[in-house]
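Q: What would this chain look like folded?
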Amino acid sequence: MRQTFLAIAIIFILPAKVFLAQQTDKNLKATDPSPQNAIEFILDAFDRYSVVALGEGNHMNWQAATFRLQLIRDPRFPQKIKNILVECGTSRYQGIMDRYIAGENIPMEKVRSCWRETTQPVIWDAPIYEEFFKAVRQLNRSLPKDNQLRVLLCDPPIDWSKIHTREDLENYYNERMIARPWGKSNIRDGHAHDVLVKEVLSKGEKALAIFGDAHFAKPDIELAEGFFGDYLRGNLMVQLGHSHPGSALSITTHTGLKEIESSYPEILSWPKPSIAVLNGTRLGAIPHGPLHLEDFFDAILWLGPISTISYSKLVYETVADESYFKEALRRDKLWISQFQSTLTGLRKEYLEKMEQTDINGPYLGQKPPGMMAEIFAPDIVSTGHGEFCSVFSPEGDEFYWSIAGAPFPVIAVMRQTEGRWTAPEIASFSGKYLDLDMAFTPEGNRLYFCSRRPLEGDGPPTGHTDFWFVEREGAGWSEPRHLKGPVNSEAQEYYPIFAQNETLYFCSTRPGGFGGGDIYRARFANGAYLEPENLGPTINTANFEGDLFIAADESYIIVTCYDRQDSFGSGDLYISFRQEDGKWSPLKNMGESVNTAANEHCPMMSPDGKFLFFSSGRSRHPDYSKTAITFGDKIRMMNSWGNGRNEDIYWIDARIIDNLRSK
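A: My prediction, written as structure tokens:
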């Protein structure tokens, strides 16, 4: 991927002829540049400029993407500006983007049209661009409406259904060259200039612009031969120099010009990220085409040596839909055939993975259990690596579960598409912090879970678990949001579960309870959760009551209880039924059909009410062997389900509940 993309960078950003210039005595008169904190530099620049043009360097690089997220998440950023201009989106769908980052629930397939229907095929499918839009959306949730950021999509509209040949594509560009008083401009930069003037500068506002570096080069010179030479003429910075002189600061991101590191090796010791002014410096004096680097850009962003720059890769989602995969191939071939091998290879890998998980039918194609608990989805979900806390979506077409172990527990998912289940993968909202204990709201448009993620930004985790949730956005999920109100505390909150009336039941170690962990409920009223109530001594004891399940009608509750006298092991599942007077019956051990000497916990009912799921650390192997096992035997046992060391997911016919009710 990296090697492929650097080829296009030479055309658009750093042409080969750039490197042919000869050194002049200009370098002898230059001084050493002064690196400054990059975020401070940009924020201060908005005091002097209406536009800070931040070049991306080579498209798709992780380091620049990470820096942009750090920049917009700085609390001072929305106080300075409210507009962000990007080339990775078509103005045709500006309305969709406005609604999305304002917080509306827009199907993600519609949102993705913003970057998939641009003049530049495939490239914006790299996950870092979608992550940027999601980050702005999440940031806006914390800002007053008048201070919320707006992302302006600057790529001109294009109808790919009318582009059938390379000639059609070239005609699209050539016929749309824009005549200006100072000369012609290509359609992409001309359109971006007009958006910037209309939506920002004419209103007296300011903007951060994020494009490839070639769009921010100051001199209007031919950077490439033939079609691409015209394609790059009259770029955004050149036009601003004529229409609004002195309004913009141009920053290049160092990702491709090796001469910078060889000509000025002192840069290798700069802190990351840093920005330095180029004018009058030894860096600015480095030859760049017929001129010098300082003639092209005002400043340079340092994110590390070229050898450390890494690139975002396309993901299965890009090729999962066959129609989009074929159309992306077609468009890319008409453009410069940059992603042909990447797309076809990724599609082949995706199909092979789908075939490996040729699983059909409800409940991942598993044979339903009887009245004794059985392993669920062995070698698919239950692998012996620590699987626990499972839940199906209300429609039964998604299955989520937690996986324990290093570096921290995460949430995994499988989805049913056209009857067949996809391969397991980490849920879109998980994978960065400790995440576990999921539960759907009754209508299924929210998924709650426990996490130690920080309340803001990407810092270190907190020391306790809180409840977070994600909301449906088309076929995907929103960014995680922290549950506001009295439910979360400074203690540990675990295992949320909802009754049909949206009352939230959960476990908490907050002070004031009966034991180490107690069961609470929080009623839902007027759009918010009320102060949690302890379920009292019938349910809670001086020991630890943990993971639980509540019936939709609150007619029974299943609780994980520890260290009770009638326990089979360390933790067992107990059940209590709601009595006619509204009180709970004493908790009853669910018996040997469910419980063992191992730890049983994480109860959850299937959405149709037919099966009870739970987690168990039981072993399927005998506690002795007539013949000595081999080293290979030991490793195979430890790496399979039922190893007695890690937990797996089990299920049992839910009629066991009716049997216990009648006793």
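The chain has 18 helices and 37 strands.
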